[in-house]
C-alpha cells in the first residue's frame, strides 16, 4: 500500500464531539501522486522527490470508514461520509480518473433487537443543528488517519527490486519550518 508514493497502509484517528460522542476513522491508503501531497497547506510532496518508487501508479484507492456512537440516522450518516472527501482534499488528493475513493459511515447508537417483530420502532436522532461539529470531526479525523498511515509506515522492500520508502520525517519537518 502506498500513499503519495510513500509507504502507506492502515491509519486511524478519532475525536470526541459535543463532550459525549466519539467519531472514529479508519483508512486504507493506496493512492496519490507525490507532487500533490500537502501538509498544513504546504506542498511538501514537491520538496520530497528523493526515494521515489520504481513503478508509479498515481491512481489507486482509499477506503474510509467513519464510525460513531452519536445517534445519527442513515441520511445523516450519508452526509458524514461525504465529508470524507474534504479530508482527502486537505492533504492534496485529486481523486483522479481511475482512482477509487470509497467512504462510508455507521452509528452504533440505535440498536434493534434481533427478531423483534414490533411494527413501530423508536430511534434517537441527533438534531441536525448539531451536525456541524460531527462534520468537522469527520474531516479532521480523515486527514489525520491518512497522515498516521504515512508517518507510521516503514520502508518495505518487495519483489523484483520494488521498494516503497517511508516518509523522511526530519526532512518533512524542515520543509514545514519545524526543525
Q: Briefly, what is this?
A:
This protein has 179 residues and is of the alpha+beta class. The protein is built from 5 helices and 8 strands. It has a single domain (2-175), classed as L-amino peptidase D-ALA esterase/amidase.
**Which segments are poorly predicted (pLDDT under 50) over 5 or more consecutive residues?**
none
Protein structure class = alpha+beta
Q: What would CATH call the homologous superfamily?
A: L-amino peptidase D-ALA esterase/amidase
Strand order across the largest sheet: 3-4-5-6
Top-tier CATH class:
Alpha Beta
Q: Could you report the average pLDDT, rounded to the nearest whole number?
A: 93
Radius of gyration: 19 Å
CATH architecture grouping: 4-Layer Sandwich
End-to-end Cα distance, whole Å, is 29 Å
Shape: elongated
Write down how many β-strands occur, each being a DSSP E stretch of 2 or more residues: 8
Q: What is CATH's topology name?
A: L-amino peptidase D-ALA esterase/amidase
Helix content: 25-40%
Proportion of residues in β-strands: 15-25%
Largest sheet: 4 strands, mixed
| Count of the domains | 1
Give the topology string: H per helix, E per strand. Answer: EEEEHEHHEHEEH
Oligomeric organization of the protein chains? single chain
In DSSP terms (H or I, runs of 4 or more residues), the helix count works out at 5
Amino acid at each position: 500500500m502506498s500513499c503519495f508514493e510513500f509507504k502507506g497502509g492502515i491509519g486511524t484517528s478519532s475525536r470526541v464531539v459535543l463532550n459525549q460522542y466519539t467519531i472514529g476513522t479508519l483508512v486504507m491508503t493506496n493512492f496519490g501522486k507525490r507532487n500533490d501531497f500537502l501538509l498544513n497547506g504546504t506542498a511538501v510532496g514537491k520538496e520530497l522527490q528523493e526515494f521515489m518508487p520504481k513503478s508509479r501508479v498515481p491512481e489507486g484507492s482509499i477506503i474510509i470508514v467513519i464510525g460513531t456512537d452519536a445517534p445519527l440516522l442513515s441520511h445523516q450518516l450519508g452526509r458524514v461520509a461525504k465529508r470524507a472527501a474534504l479530508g482527502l482534499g486537505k492533504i492534496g488528493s485529486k481523486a483522479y480518473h481511475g482512482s477509487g475513493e470509497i467512504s462510508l459511515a455507521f452509528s452504533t447508537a440505535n440498536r434493534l433487537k434481533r427478531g423483534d417483530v414490533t411494527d413501530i420502532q423508536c430511534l434517537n436522532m441527533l438534531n441536525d443543528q448539531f451536525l456541524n461539529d460531527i462534520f468537522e470531526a469527520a474531516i479532521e479525523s480523515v486527514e489525520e488517519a491518512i497522515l498516521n498511515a504515512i508517518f507510521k509506515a516503514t520502508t518495505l522492500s518487495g519483489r523484483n527490486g520494488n521498494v516503497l520508502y517511508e516518509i523522511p520525517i526530519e526532512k518533512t519537518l524542515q520543509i514545514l519550518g519545524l526543525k
